[in-house]
Amino acid sequence: MTYTKKGNSAYLNNQILTASPKKLIEILYEAGIKHSKIALYHLEQGNLQEVNTHLIKVQNIVLELKFAVQPMEDSDISDQLISLYDFMYGQLLLANTEKNKERIEIVQKMLEELLETWESL
Predict the structure, then answer these.
(1) Which residues are the signal sequence here (predicted)?
(2) Interatomic CA distance for residues 56 and 118, integer angstroms
């Protein structure tokens, strides 16, 4: 590991440890988008093991987002969000087994839209 990677890792760890709950969700969305893009790149290159690695990271991120949803009284927003994350997770599973570009792009777009909405709150 080079000095730069150690520095970046320490910076990221510090950013996570000191982040507000709102910022942590943003970090998860950003990481999900990043790993979706990396998976798409490796899919185009034919590197299926790397596609698998990065899609599993996105799957784990979507699960973390799902488990972070707080139930809200008198609102079905949390249930709808959980259903959305379940849909995304299913798409990622299929994308990984089928190595399907369109499914990855669907989830990436959804993550981008959710990030945009979250940042506007």
Answers:
(1) none
(2) 23
**Tens digit of each residue's pLDDT, the chain (121 residues):** 455 666 677 877 888 888 899 999 999 999 999 999 999 999 999 999 999 999 999 999 999 999 999 988 888 999 999 999 999 999 999 999 999 999 999 999 999 999 999 999 9
DSSP 61-83: HHHHHHHTPPP-TT--HHHHHHH
- Write the burial class of residue 71 (CB in 10 Å: 0-12 exposed, 13-18 middle, 19+ buried): exposed
Count Cβ neighbours within 10 Å for each residue of 1-30 and write b for 16 or more, e otherwise.
eeeeeeeeeeeeeeeeeeeeeeeebeebbe
Domains (range + CATH), the chain: 20-120 (1.20.120.340)
**What are the structure tokens assigned to 115, written together?**
């990030």
Quote the CA–CA distance of 30 and 97 in Å, as a whole number: 24
Other CB atoms within 10 A of residue 83 CB = 12
